[in-house]
Automatic annotation (TrEMBL):
Part of the twin-arginine translocation (Tat) system that transports large folded proteins containing a characteristic twin-arginine motif in their signal peptide across membranes. Together with TatC, TatB is part of a receptor directly interacting with Tat signal peptides. TatB may form an oligomeric binding site that transiently accommodates folded Tat precursor proteins before their translocation. Pfam families: TatA_B_E. The Tat system comprises two distinct complexes: a TatABC complex, containing multiple copies of TatA, TatB and TatC subunits, and a separate TatA complex, containing only TatA subunits. Substrates initially bind to the TatABC complex, which probably triggers association of the separate TatA complex to form the active translocon. This is Sec-independent protein translocase protein TatB.
Length: 113
């Protein structure tokens, strides 16, 4: 990810040991590791939300194309599939909206602290 070799990592640890001392170095390492975990979790969440949003957009585009093509004489099976896609699209949109509201609430609660 960062292309850090073992020698470079060892150099950073030695400098950290000299600057921070042996008492504070483990605490600093734990703190940095915690930050990295939080950043990875946040990036995974964002990536998941973007994937859901892209799938939702694709479904909506497919539904619009089907409606614009003027297929009034659809078989019952195809009409059921279209109705199911509409329901799934609506449920995904509601889920995305609720996650967005939850994230906004969490961030505003953290700002208050």
């Amino acid at each position: 990810m960062f292309d850090i070799s073992f020698g470079q990592l060892l150099l950073v640890l030695i400098i950290g040991l000299v600057v921070l001392g042996p008492e504070r170095l483990p605490i600093a390492i734990k703190t940095v590791a915690g930050w990295i975990k939080v950043l990875r979790r946040m990036s995974a969440t964002v990536q998941l939300e973007l994937n859901k949003e892209l799938k939702l957009q694709e479904l909506q585009d497919s539904l619009k194309k089907a409606e614009q093509s003027g297929l009034n004489t659809l078989t019952p099976e195809i009409q059921e599939s279209i109705d199911e896609l509409k329901r799934v699209t609506e449920s995904l949109q509601k889920e995305i909206d609720s996650v967005s509201q939850t994230d906004t609430t969490i961030h505003s609660d953290k700002d208050k602290l």
